[in-house]
Write the structure tokens for this entry.
Amino acid sequence: MTRTTARDDGTGAEEVRRRVRALLDAHDPSGGDPLDFLRARFDAGLAWVHFPEGLGGLGAPRALQAVVDAELAAAGAPDNDPRRIGIGLGMAAPTILRYGTEAQKARFLRPLWTGEEVWCQLFSEPGAGSDLAGLRTRAVREGGGSGEGDGGGGGGGDWIVDGQKVWTSSAHNARWAILIARTDPDVPKHQGITYFVCDMTDPGVEVRPLRQITGEAEFNEVFLTGVRIPDAHRLGAVGDGWRVAQATLMNERVAIGGMVTPREGGMIGPVAATWRARPELRTSELHDRLLGLWVEAEVARLGAERVRQQLAVGAPGPEGSGLKLTFARLNQRISGLEVELLGEDGLRYGDWTMVRPESVDFYGRDAGYRYLRAKGNSIEGGTSEILRNIVAERVLGLPSEPRTDKDVAWKDLPR
Ligand SMILES: Cc1cc2nc3c(=O)[nH]c(=O)nc-3n(C[C@H](O)[C@H](O)[C@H](O)COP(=O)(O)OP(=O)(O)OC[C@H]3O[C@@H](n4cnc5c(N)ncnc54)[C@H](O)[C@@H]3O)c2cc1C
């Protein structure tokens, strides 16, 4: 962002406010098509202000996004429903920004941000969850060549992808997927992986619902049979997919664990509200536990704020893993306490009808749903055990887990 005004305090906040006012003057936030407003907001650089100009941003400090969001919320402007498009916003977008070609950024970022195109993440496989680098889904370049090693896609030709993915949240709504596949079985497992953008409307993509403990089918199995991906949809260099995936995973942990919420805006909110509204449920033991969890939730909330401030000056580091770990533990303990507090009411579960939700919404639901869905928090986006390993090795500097497969070609690994 280059221009500032005389009243600017030096942070650029006043200039950002001026741009918000100009957007609101030109586009009525309450009347008209919400999508038109969102497109105009993106084009005005007010979608994610830290992105470059022309890609929904102003090249401004990330902290200024809070100014934009507050002004637009006060004006009653429509938002892009970040919960529904969380994988696109939290995982695909930062990866495309960092590793995508200019053509990829121009093609994908705008409809991703407005929510016109939903994204999913085709990473996990049967047998390759925590050990993601062991994945089997293979991508073979048509004609057999391995292709050039440098830079993002665009070298021409297609890749043919075959394999199976699992636990793919939102695949049933998704237009695009971020996908990692093995392109070279002859090198150690971390080296032979390449990162692609997969078109979920390709005839070779089959999405089958998987019902989870809540009764809902929020995620899916995805079978890939002869899926044709143009080289122009490769993200990063051939064989460099593990490094690109690391950027996605670091962002995923911050996206899951690092949401900035107001006090009592998280899982503790509904429990505290029940406590206040229904004195007949209280015992002194529950009181002590609720207070303890309330304090921990507040510490976690402030920790998320701290990580958000760190992010304003750089990419997410391993600290995001600690945050996601805390979030998962707390959500499970708080939702457990809520069920106990409610007694028999807590055991009732509304409806087991199979539904295919567009997003995960903890708050508009009953305690039973929160309790069951929170179980997935310690698995999705990296299990708590793996996150403890990351914190131990990369934050605390403790010795690494022994890794005997580091120098063995993937095809020679025992299975
Ligand atoms: C609700 C939900 C949504 C999901 N959404 C997606 C999605 O959209 N896209 C996607 O690609 N994936 C998704 N996943 C998959 C998720 O990322 C994997 O389930 C997860 O990475 C764990 O892999 P796994 O299930 O194969 O378990 P495993 O890797 O088999 O692990 C089993 C247990 O062993 C432990 N373990 C394994 N290795 C070690 C080790 N080295 N040290 C210590 N403990 C270890 C694990 O922590 C775990 O407790 C989702 C999962 C859930 C539950």
The chain has a mean pLDDT of 92. The first strand starts at residue 119 and ends at 122. Residues 284-311 form the longest helix (28 residues). Residues 120-121, 123-124, 129-131, 167-169, 219, 376, 379-380, 382-383, 385-386, 389, 401 surround flavin-adenine dinucleotide (CB under 6 Å).
